[in-house]
Amino acid sequence: MSRNRFIFSSESVGEGHPDKVCDTISDAVLDACLAQDKFSRVACECYAKSNVVVVGGEITTKATLDYVKIARQAIREIGYVNEDDVFHADKVFVNVLVTQQSPDIAQGVDARKAKGKKTAKQGAGDQGLMFGFACNETPELMPAPIMFAHRLGRALTKIRKSGKVEWLRPDAKSQVSVVYENGKPVAISNVVISTQHAEDVAHREIEKFCIEQVIQKVLPKRLLTSRTEYLINPTGRFVVGGPQGDTGLTGRKIIVDSYGGMGRHGGGAFSGKDPTKVDRSAAYMGRWVAKNVVAAKLAAKCEVQFAYAIGHPDPVSVHIDTFGTHTAPESRITRAINRVFSFQPADIIDQLNLRRPIYGKTTNYGHFGKNDPALTWERTDKVNELKRAL
């Protein structure tokens, strides 16, 4: 295989995947807090196994919450309401282990003076590095493999929730392998779908349905060839799924949530965290910056990296990589970015209007690449400013 030809794969997971169940509950708690108190400090983690859910974390809020009710409603909306499943919205045991945010962390985040703190400005809630990424492979300015994998998962869920295919169950995964030539997607070499199902359906029916009603309807026909391989429920059976079949944890699907491995990830999870947590807000900021750079045609591909120290308002570094696709010198693009955008945590929250209960919209099928006006980091509203700043 020549250096100009390679295959890149990305996966997505459905709403009923055990880790996504936990992400969904965590973001539901966050939204419930922000709906009543927009200054809530939330770090909500969730664990699910068999018929048990543990909701834990550090939450400081004026909101009054019924954590058990929130968890059950989230599970119900996912679709865990089948009597043949151990994990059921109305039958799970929900344990709540929540304390307030550490005062030592709070003084670093608060926009006020504190002993030993060098500034009165709002600081980052933790140290860490964040990445943002965009490329011109798809209309969403996202890498093709992850967008294709998300499309499959979204289509499968839509059909399941419509009730038209009664044997479909909530747990599911998809994976797409895309062939690249000279940096462009030219074919799909392999598609994997694993979907949980009722006991009484034949494997050949699942296979036929997934290929004809899902894959061939949502993936680009020009990329599906006679050589494309389809692997549908490759183990032959997937009846036991969800938290009955596997343990779920919040924040374990960070590559699914971001760029499918095509763009790097700083390591911090998103779900269950309020926007003072730079793991989440700065990752959204990075996407906004990178997307505007690509939309302005300053590069065909752009990755932005920046990093913070806890309690400190300014990033300790801002770096871009256009992988040789830039149309202006990278040093000039970096200077333009720093003129147009502010990377201070308080400014990120204001620029993207992040103190709103919008996070349930982000949980499933990626936090990036969605056409929803509430997700402000997907706007390309800084294109002209970037060009002027150059």
Defining key terms:
alpha+beta; 390 residues; 4-stranded mixed sheet; 32% helix
Average pLDDT? 93
Low-confidence stretches: none
Judged by helices, strands and strand pairing, the structural class is: alpha+beta
**Strands, count:** 11
Q: Can you list the strand order of the major beta sheet?
A: 1-6-7-8
* Rg: 22 Å
Number of helices: 11
- H/E element order: EHEEHEHEHEEHEHEHHEEHHH
Question: How is the biggest beta sheet arranged?
Answer: 4 strands, mixed
The residue fraction in helices comes out at: 25-40%
User: Which term fits the overall shape?
Assistant: flat
End-to-end gap: 40 Å
Estimated share of beta-strand residues:
15-25%
Descriptive overview:
The strands form 3 sheets. This protein has a 4-stranded mixed beta sheet with strand order 1-6-7-8. The chain has a 4-stranded mixed beta sheet with strand order 4-3-2-9. Helix 1 crosses helix 2 and helix 4 packs across helix 5. It is built from 11 helices and 11 strands. With 390 residues, it is an alpha+beta fold. It starts with a strand and ends with a helix.
Summary, kept brief:
The chain has 390 residues and is α+β, with helices and mostly antiparallel strands. It has helices at 18-36, 67-78, 103-109, 144-162, 203-218, 242-245, 254-257, 278-295, 330-340, 345-352, 383-389; strands at 5-13, 41-49, 52-60, 93-99, 128-135, 168-181, 184-197, 224-232, 248-249, 301-308, 317-321.
Topology:
Elements lengths: L4 E9 L4 H19 L4 E9 L2 E9 L6 H12 L14 E7 L3 H7 L18 E8 L8 H19 L5 E14 L2 E14 L5 H16 L5 E9 L9 H4 L2 E2 L4 H4 L20 H18 L5 E8 L8 E5 L8 H11 L4 H8 L30 H7 L1
Parallel strand pairs: 3-4, 7-8
Antiparallel strand pairs: 1-6, 2-3, 2-9, 5-10, 6-7, 10-11
Helix pairs in contact: 1-2, 4-5, 8-10, 9-11
